[in-house]
């Protein structure tokens, strides 16, 4: 599906979708438990993949009419799956579920779509083997399809921290139900650290204790997953809120009122500070979980995405509208997502007339040297690229057609419907 966006002014009230990161973890944590009720869950292509994995391990996931998930778990003892675990395009699913597969007394096979089969999994496979399991890439290149055989019982493991924080999350979640627990020594500095903070916060809500140490992280074994009253509520998603705030900052004279923005461990809450530093009018009522944002003249800034990789596409679009240069630093790990998001934003914004300088660990957007013009751009089958390019279309000169827009279902189902409700001129092509 393609969508065409005509320059538009937006205004009104928008509610953030639930957090994808929290929803993945909440579904799997309920699987590790006897079961749980997960409220306000994001039901998207990615999170459905995690739910299917829980069912293949012996649990059940039933979605109620109000969106609540009623989950019966496998109580820390996953069955050997009767079928291949298809993670579709969800790297989070593959990495978190690989840890659960290492607990099963037998062999699990994990695969996904073409994009997912190109992403690095090697360090996690090596960690599982170090813990006494057997894990390998069928092609011998550290990429899916993966074969994982358990059961592991815990122990000490070393792993790099600069490839994916999801490796640490996977081991912590699985380690809590091993006999010995797992102690993780980080070989390198941890990037995307707030995502591990999300994990430890959610584990605590499920009654599981995991701690940071001088060398990494540790989780004691023999623990049980059990949220208070058997229920867990997913907070709003700040990765998705970033698109709403950016829309307000570049295309809303009257302002956008965002609901569902309660504070949490999400690193992407940094977007509030970023749009404010760039010059937008922003007010965050943390107690009520609302943010008001409106358009202003934006100025380029320097932003590190070391801990907030998912914000790079949004920041790149803001930079295309801003005066001066926007330097997005510590960005190399953003190249290993659904697509190489550094190159994707440089190339697609370039199609729209934006001047950029791309280095391995840096993307600079030269706003003052750019004339943002409508064009046909490739969404790269990546939900975050698609939404960020759509925002650029709100203020570009002429029509912008974004190709492959169905992929927003990964994290923000209804994104284009919401843009239209806010006043954007959106046409399905």
Q: Please give the count of helices.
A: 12
Helix content: 25-40%
Mean pLDDT: 97
Name the beta content range: 15-25%
What structural category arises from helix and sheet content?
Answer: alpha/beta
CATH superfamily of the largest domain: Enolpyruvate transferase domain
Shape: globular
- Main sheet specs: 4 strands, mixed
| Total beta-strand segments | 24
Number of domains: 2
CATH structural architecture of the largest domain: Alpha-beta prism
CATH topology-level fold name of the largest domain: UDP-n-acetylglucosamine1-carboxyvinyl-transferase, Chain
Task: Catalogue the unreliable spans.
Answer: none
Subunit structure: Monomer.
GO molecular function: 3-phosphoshikimate 1-carboxyvinyltransferase activity
Keywords: Amino-acid biosynthesis, Aromatic amino acid biosynthesis, Cytoplasm, Transferase
Binding site for phosphoenolpyruvate: 20, 91, 119, 166, 341, 384
Description of the structure:
By secondary structure, the protein is an alpha/beta fold. The protein folds into two domains: 2-17 and 236-428, Alpha-beta prism (UDP-n-acetylglucosamine1-carboxyvinyl-transferase, Chain), CATH 3.65.10.10; 20-233, Enolpyruvate transferase domain (UDP-n-acetylglucosamine1-carboxyvinyl-transferase, Chain). The protein is built from twelve helices and 24 strands. It has helices at residues 20-32, 45-56, 91-101, 122-130, 166-175, 193-205, 238-251, 270-277, 312-321, 341-351, 383-395, 415-421, and strands at 2-6, 12-15, 35-39, 60-63, 69-72, 85-86, 107-111, 134-137, 146-149, 155-159, 182-186, 210-212, 216-219, 231-233, 256-259, 281-285, 290-294, 302-304, 325-329, 355-359, 362-366, 376-378, 400-403, 425-428. The strands form six sheets. The chain has a four-stranded mixed sheet with strand order 22-23-1-24, with helices on one face. β10, α5 and β11 (182-186) form a beta-alpha-beta unit. α1 runs parallel beside α2 (45-56) and α1 (20-32) crosses α6 (193-205). The radius of gyration is 21 Å and the shape is globular. The chain starts with a strand and ends with a strand. Its EC number is 2.5.1.19. Its main location: cytoplasm.
């Amino acid at each position: 599906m393609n969508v065409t966006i005509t320059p538009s002014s937006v205004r009104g009230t928008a509610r953030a979708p639930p957090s994808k990161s929290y929803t993945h973890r909440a579904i799997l944590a309920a699987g590790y438990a006897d079961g749980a009720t997960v409220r306000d869950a994001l039901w998207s292509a990615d999170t459905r993949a995690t739910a299917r994995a829980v069912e293949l391990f012996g649990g059940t996931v039933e979605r109620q009419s109000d969106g609540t998930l009623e989950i019966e778990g496998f109580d820390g003892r996953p069955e050997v799956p009767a079928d291949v675990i298809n993670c579709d395009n969800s790297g989070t699913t593959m990495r978190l579920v690989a840890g659960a597969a290492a607990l099963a007394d037998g062999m699990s096979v994990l695969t996904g779509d073409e994009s997912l089969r190109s992403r690095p999994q090697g360090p996690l496979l090596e960690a599982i083997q170090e813990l006494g399991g057997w894990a390998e890439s069928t092609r011998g290149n550290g990429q899916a399809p993966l074969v994982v055989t358990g059961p592991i019982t815990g122990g000490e493991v070393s792993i790099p921290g600069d490839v994916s924080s999801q490796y640490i999350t996977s081991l912590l979640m699985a380690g809590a139900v091993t006999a010995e627990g797992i102690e993780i020594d980080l070989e390198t500095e941890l990037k995307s650290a707030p995502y591990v903070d999300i994990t430890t916060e959610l584990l605590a809500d499920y009654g599981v204790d995991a701690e940071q140490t001088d060398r990494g992280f540790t989780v004691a074994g023999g623990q049980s997953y059990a949220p208070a009253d058997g229920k867990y509520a997913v907070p709003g998603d700040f990765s998705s809120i970033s698109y709403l705030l950016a829309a307000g900052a570049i295309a809303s004279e009257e302002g956008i009122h965002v609901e569902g923005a309660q504070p949490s461990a999400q690193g992407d809450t940094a977007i509030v500070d970023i749009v404010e530093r760039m010059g937008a009018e922003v007010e965050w009522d943390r107690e009520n979980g609302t943010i008001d944002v409106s358009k202003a003249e934006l100025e380029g800034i320097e932003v590190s995405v070391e801990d907030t990789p998912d914000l790079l596409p949004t920041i790149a679009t803001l930079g295309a509208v801003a005066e001066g240069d926007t330097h997005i630093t510590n960005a190399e790990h953003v190249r290993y997502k659904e697509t190489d998001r550094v190159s994707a934003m440089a190339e697609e914004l370039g199609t729209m007339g934006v001047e950029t300088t791309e280095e391995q660990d840096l993307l600079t957007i030269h706003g003052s040297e750019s004339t943002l013009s409508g064009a046909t751009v490739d969404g790269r089958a990546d939900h975050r690229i698609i939404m960020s390019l759509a925002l650029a279309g709100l203020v570009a000169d002429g029509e912008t057609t974004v190709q492959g827009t169905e992929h927003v279902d990964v994290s923000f189902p209804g994104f284009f419907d919401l843009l239209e409700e806010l006043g954007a001129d959106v046409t399905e092509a």
